[in-house]
Amino acid sequence: MLDTKATETIHQGSIFGQITKMEHEQLVVCYDEATGLKALVGIHNTTLGPALGGTRMWSYASEAEAITDVLRLSRGMTFKNALAGLNLGGGKAVIIGNPQMKSEAYLRRFGKFINGLAGRYVTAEDVNMNTADMEYIAMETRHVTGLPEIKGGSGDPSPVTAYGTYMGMKAAAKKAYGNDSLEGKTIGVQGVGQVGKYLIDYLVKENANVLITDIFEDRLQAIAKKTGATVVDPNLIYDVEMDIYAPCALGATINDDTIGRLKCAVIAGAANNQLKDEEKHGMELLERGIVYAPDFLINAGGVINVGAEYLGDYHRETVYGLTEKIYDTCLSILDKSEKEQISAQRAAMEAAKARIESIGKVKLSF
Ligand code: NAD
């Protein structure tokens, strides 16, 4: 048993303090001198099933920053997977380093570490990790998903993520305007990367008036030429009149600086962790009458896709069918938020936690 002094230390920001506060099951440290691999795996909650979440490779400024990131990201996966109705828990891995360090040996060593977790954690792509990297990891473990289609995998998850985001956006529009048509709505898409570009296709097809912004000028111009969307300067996107703001680039774009500038009725996009402060900015959106479709709810299409691949039951129609359900889930979360006068973010978190708790009880019986 811990003495009082030890307990105090734990709650003063140590690793165990963070894990206790964020309710993780496990934090795994992986190091290999031969390849220089330094990785962390966060397993947040496995009540619903193996913890699934991608691996992010990043040149973190410090080990503390990497630990915070893996804990935050793995926790987010628990709620995302639960709310998507998946029988998967939440986990995530980070590799500390420059993507140029990647080699066959480096990635296979990482795969070997993942294998050592015996299926408690299943990895996939995230920032700076691609389907080709998953192929190397798969040489050492079967607890990996998101493999290329030519290898029998489900390929790039971004089109499915975009479809789910589109469904969530339509549900939020229904809440705000009484019907879910996006025709004639002015929609600002921030980030025309993998998800953004597919989302824009759905919006253009519905005759929305699409504004686009990105820091990559060439990419922006190419999408504008292809779709007829109007280009907006990245610094001006928060000040433009629009009906719907769709963040599809970075996290934390809804913050003290931007929230008062946004002139929109709806926020619905794919970017992870859009609210800088979940509680504060979530409530502020409610008070300002802006309908917010929680990011981890509406960007779940990608994990629905790789989850189906991992569970060995991949059918594209079923995956799109499950992703389409984001529409109904989003509407029910927005109704709950309105009825209980709690932020949509909190309403979504509560629904995810309720599912984990109730299914956890079911699992207790044999
Ligand atoms: P991506 O890297 O392909 O695209 C992101 C785009 O945002 C890039 O074009 C980049 O230039 C642009 N960008 C970066 N900073 C910007 C800024 N300040 N202003 C405007 N544009 C900026 O990434 P993606 O796969 O399209 O993912 C987009 C977001 O959705 C990310 O937050 C990601 O975590 C999240 N997400 C993606 C998936 C998926 O399936 N790809 C799934 C769930 C969540």
Automatic annotation (TrEMBL):
This enzyme's EC code(s): 1.4.1.-
Alphabetical list of InterPro entries matching this protein: Aminoacid_DH-like_N_sf, Glu/Leu/Phe/Val/Trp_DH, Glu/Leu/Phe/Val/Trp_DH_C, Glu/Leu/Phe/Val/Trp_DH_dimer, Glu/Leu/Phe/Val_DH_AS, Glu/Phe/Leu/Val/Trp_DH_bac/arc, NAD(P)-bd_dom_sf
Top-level taxon: Bacteria
Primary enzyme class: oxidoreductase
Keyword tags: NAD, Oxidoreductase
Record-annotated Glutamate/phenylalanine/leucine/valine/L-tryptophan dehydrogenase C-terminal domain positions: 155-364
Molecular function, one GO term: oxidoreductase activity
Nucleus is among the record's keywords: no
Family membership: Belongs to the Glu/Leu/Phe/Val dehydrogenases family.
Protein name: Glu/Leu/Phe/Val dehydrogenase
Protein species of origin: Algoriphagus namhaensis
